[in-house]
Here is the input.
Amino acid sequence: MSPASISRPRRRNRERPRVFQRRPLFWIALGAILFGLLQAGAPLEHMLRFLRDRVRDHPVSGQIVVVAIDDRTMSAAQQWPLPRRFYATLIDRLNADGVRRIFISVNFTTLSDPVDDALLVSAMRRSKAPIILPVGFTIDPITRVRAYFAPALMFKPVASVSSINLNFDAEGTVRRLPYAMKSDMGVTPSFSALLANREGSAGSQYPIDYATNLSSIPILNAQDVLSGVVPTRAIAGRDVVVGLTSARAGNNFLVPNIGLVSGVILHVLGAETLRNGSATDIPWFVPLGAALIVAFMASLIRRRRFLVIVYILGTIAAVAAPFMLDRELIFVEIVPTLALLAAIGGTSLWFAYREAARRRSVVNVVSGLPNLNALRAVDNAPDVALVAARIRNFPEISATLPEEKERALVEQIARRLALGSGGATIYQGDEGIFAWLMPCETVSFTSDQFDALHALFRNPISIDDRRFDLAITFGLASDPVSSPFNRLGGALMAADAAADAGLHWKLHEPEQEDDSAWRLSLLGRLDAAIDSGEIWVAYQPKIDLSSGRIVGSEALVRWSHPEKGPISPVDFIPMAEQQNRIGKLTYHVLETAIRAAAAINSHGISFGIAVNLSARLLDDPELVVRVSSILTEHGLASNLLTLEITETVAVANSAHSIAVLNRLRLIGVVLSIDDYGTGYSNLENLRTIPATEIKIDRSFIDAIDHSRSDAVMVRSTIQMAHSLGQSVVAEGVEREETLRALRVMGCDLVQGYLTGRPMKFGALSRLLLKERRRTAA
Here is the structure.
């Protein structure tokens, strides 16, 4: 071997770590940036901030006192809003106690009682402590137009102003406060900035330090201050903020991890934050950018151990740095960076795991046979067909065996398949799936081959002293375009189709793939959907036109799929009939409907129920017995059950079908010819079929008030049915004009959206109860 041939693979091996590191790093970085832009980590960010705040919990300075207008103050005043003489008296009292400044967080934007207004202005004029009143703006929720408010002009000479507006984030939480507000009045400092004697530009914000202990804020009741109960030393020389704290005033705002807090408390928290220093935020992209630079530099290093050390140290730094920065009132958003580091670490672990798993992935761990991953690696060969064998009862058998016995089961199956396949390599999938490849030129001889292979499985398989019969079918896929592995799906569909048709094997037809996929996804869940309650019964009322009362309903099957939502009966009932899966569904609907009708009749209401009968069930030898048994079990008279059949169904297998229908009539069940007019309607069918009711299809009913031909057809059908002693039901009635026309024609019963949509049993019961009360009245 030449040196060149040796050096080439070595060069590829050296380059692999670089590709492994940088390409995932690009997508991880992009994901972390999107993560930050979408604020997806906000809940975790807030939780981490809360934990750090609890560690750093500290009291306030005590230089700002809140005089609270709380529930007790409002109850003592016995009126709201409080009269302005109340504030005048409070200002005098606070001056007597020697406060430094008085901030009043109450809007005096309009005039009130002239005497009270004069008293308040006088109190402000003689106040030694500067008076600060609020200004701000409100935003119309529809037009989003700002409306600024300020104290009435009479207060302008005696008080200064400060902004009380608060900022909310997307969650409606107050996390930052403004330094100042810009309006027509100029730039106005915020309450919190003025309280802390700090300046800042209009529009700039600072974060609130929620490590400040709210319970340490001095809060005095306004009524106590007025009555002189509060000692002078508690407020002398301090700034006082007078504001609403009563929950009834509605001046409350959402605070992280605390709940609702009055606005005046938030201003005090902001002032206490600024008194301790210049609070600032570091946005998430700053630490994320630093982490990305470190990660990129680390990707240039090929020593895996050094990379692990770098990522561990980076994660420790990302967790520890916020604790140290918080003490300096520098609040950093770190979750996107943590997400980046976690993704890098997780991806590295995943690649390591995947590499190990890849080496084990081509062999079935129980049997040792090559699995479907090994089949995936087989190169495409247009002249090779794929055979799939599905053992339908494999899960039931393997569930009863320990792992070592399951291996013996698979070995015996593989030996028989290898014998019948000419020694081909057998690939094993899950749940009793086996596959192998065969030359396409032998496909023409497959019928004999599969018959012989099926015969090998007629003898039971023995495991110790237990014997198991295997139900096996085969499918063949020979599409030259698809790879051998991609042909597996089609071959399995063919095997399932063979089982449904009672055949040993079947060739996959690609044009049937869509129908097969739909059948597998829906019909495979049908029985489970019945058991889990996804399949339920709706009831559409049937109205007696002569009395206008509800005399029964039609039971209609509904499927509420947990993933696809409501599934139309048109999408699963025809397929269920074609695949012989309609029996359990029909008996489920039949029993549910009879139970419901029996419950209604037990309250003294004569109520009939109609259920559609599938043509497939006319071949069920137990049909009549089961119907009679269900009626007896629930105590419903047989003449209150109507089974609806189409005339096409009844005459398709005339002799047998008519015999079954006659037996149903003998036990007292009412038979109805459904969708009359859409099949082979003729008098012979009406005479032969032992029905006592005709149900005219909605396609004729809907147009009888404006289509002469449809009206003639419906009228003649009603007259003919009455002459034969049969009643007539019109379905699909949706308009008043149609209902009036049917009443004139002498129709017996109607159903449709006009008289009642399909509804759940509870709604039907309430409707019947309401009708009963109306009739009784």
Notes: The two ends are 106 Å apart (CA to CA).
